[in-house]
């Protein structure tokens, strides 16, 4: 099963000719600069169980890049860090570049913890591998196309360039990290038959009902709260709803209050409170 966040091919071909290594707009040479040698495959492989980050490293990286974490009280910050460490520990991070930064596992994993912070099932055990590409990458299944992220098999794949942009522009409703994690949590809960979160599966039928009404309304000319891509299918609509829930919370609540209320129930958290 394949869920993908697709970029227009023509645009990306032009960009691909200019691909840089990991983008540096937000990074002061990127947060922290612990680099690791390539293995013989040409990839960097970070095994989460072997990574050793101090609490100071975690909090510094999160404090610089994740306002969500900064808004938590002391007890919830401890809960967030505990979950984050557990999540990192069971993943294998594969960086498709000549060099990388160990903070990549922290920030991408933190996005999963942010989305699932109100849930009991947050580890995504089905997804053992997180692939990180410097920028756009080519997907070949079911056909050749250029992507910023996708969820396929037991892997989550994300463009680091687009991931960083999602946090550099936190109110535009576009966040590839949240988008792909939304697909992953749906797949974990409804497709794998294991480690389902009771809250998620109990309230998701409400999204099917309320969300479908919004899905149809958004297809009416003049309604453009959602992107055209979100309306290609209901799974993409779900993933973009998660992006909007966290990045344009007040606007989503105003435009579609019943849908917002349903999202609060599914994820057991409210970004506005």
The shape is: globular
- In round numbers, the mean pLDDT is 86
Please describe the biggest sheet, giving its number of strands, its sense, and whether it closes into a barrel.
7 strands, mixed
Helices and strands, in order, run as: EHEHHHEHEEEEHHHHHH
What percent strand? Answer: 5-15%
Number of discrete domains: 2
The chain-level structural class is alpha/beta
What is the C-alpha radius of gyration, as a whole number of Å? 18 Å
Sum this structure up briefly.
The protein has helices at residues 9-16, 55-65, 67-70, 74-89, 103-115, 160-168, 176-190, 198-217, 234-247, 249-255, 257-267; strands at 2-6, 44-47, 92-95, 129-133, 137-139, 145-152, 155-159. The chain is an alpha/beta fold. It has two domains: 2-196, no CATH class; 197-273, no CATH class.
Walk me through the topology.
Elements: E1 2-6, H1 9-16, E2 44-47, H2 55-65, H3 67-70, H4 74-89, E3 92-95, H5 103-115, E4 129-133, E5 137-139, E6 145-152, E7 155-159, H6 160-168, H7 176-190, H8 198-217, H9 234-247, H10 249-255, H11 257-267
Parallel strand pairs: 3-4, 4-7
Antiparallel strand pairs: 1-6, 2-3, 5-6, 6-7
Helix pairs in contact: 2-5, 4-5, 5-7, 7-9, 8-11, 9-10, 10-11
């Amino acid at each position: 099963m394949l869920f993908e966040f697709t970029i227009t091919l023509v645009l990306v071909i032009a960009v691909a000719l200019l691909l840089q290594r990991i983008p540096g707009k937000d990074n002061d040479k990127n947060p922290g600069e612990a680099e690791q040698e390539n293995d013989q495959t040409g990839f960097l492989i970070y095994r989460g169980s072997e990574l050793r980050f101090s609490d100071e490293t975690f909090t510094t990286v999160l404090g610089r890049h994740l306002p969500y974490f900064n808004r938590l009280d002391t007890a919830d910050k401890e809960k967030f860090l505990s979950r984050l460490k557990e999540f990192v520990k069971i993943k294998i991070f594969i960086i498709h570049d000549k060099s990388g930064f160990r903070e990549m596992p922290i920030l991408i994993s933190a996005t999963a913890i942010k989305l699932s912070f109100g849930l009991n099932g947050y580890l995504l055990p089905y997804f053992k591998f997180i692939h990180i590409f410097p920028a756009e990458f080519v997907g070949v299944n079911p056909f050749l196309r250029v992507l910023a992220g996708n969820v396929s098999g037991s892997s989550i794949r994300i463009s680091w360039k687009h991931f960083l942009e999602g946090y550099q522009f936190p109110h535009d409703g576009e966040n590839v990290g949240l988008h792909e994690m939304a697909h992953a949590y749906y797949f974990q809960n409804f497709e794998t038959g294991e480690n389902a979160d009771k809250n998620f599966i109990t309230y998701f039928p409400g999204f099917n009902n309320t969300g479908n009404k919004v899905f149809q309304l958004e297809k009416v000319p003049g309604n453009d709260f959602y992107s055209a891509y979100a309306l290609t299918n209901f799974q993409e609509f779900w993933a973009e709803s998660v992006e909007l829930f966290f990045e344009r919370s007040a606007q989503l609540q105003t435009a579609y209050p019943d849908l917002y209320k349903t999202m609060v129930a599914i994820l057991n958290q409210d970004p506005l409170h």
